[in-house]
Known about the structure:
The chain is an all-alpha fold. Helix content is about 70%, strand content about 0%. It has 6 helices and no strands. It has helices spanning about 5-15, 25-35, 50-65, 70-90, 100-115, 120-130. The radius of gyration is 16 Å and the shape is globular. The relative contact order is 0.15.
Amino acid sequence: MSYVAPIFVGILYVLLMCLVREPHRRRLNAVMVGGAGAAYLSGGGLGGWEFAFTAVATYVAYRGLDSWTFIGIGWLMHTAWDVVHHVKGNPIIPFAHSSSLGCAICDPVIALWCLGGGRTPAELLRTVRVETGVNAK
């Protein structure tokens, strides 16, 4: 399995999400992390713990409707769940053994972006210019 491809998938996700205007971008990402929280339900690899994780992930996603921080936390939670599934041998895609590992590599890329406020590259550049005192002209 390539460890680089999941990083590019995370970057592609971020770039595509940057095309969505705020506040819709934040709300869409809250829905996405909520869906990711339920991704393992159909496999049931961890029994009742799948329902417990999904309940917590749903709460975090709900809080994410108004908070990029909660969305980032949700992606980090999903990363941890991916690692557990990878170690246990119950991948997110049953016929792709390393799919949970790939997801565990991709998700922190998204989480970092969310924890940074889910800003577009242009918004990030404007912030850097203001903080460094560089004229934005």
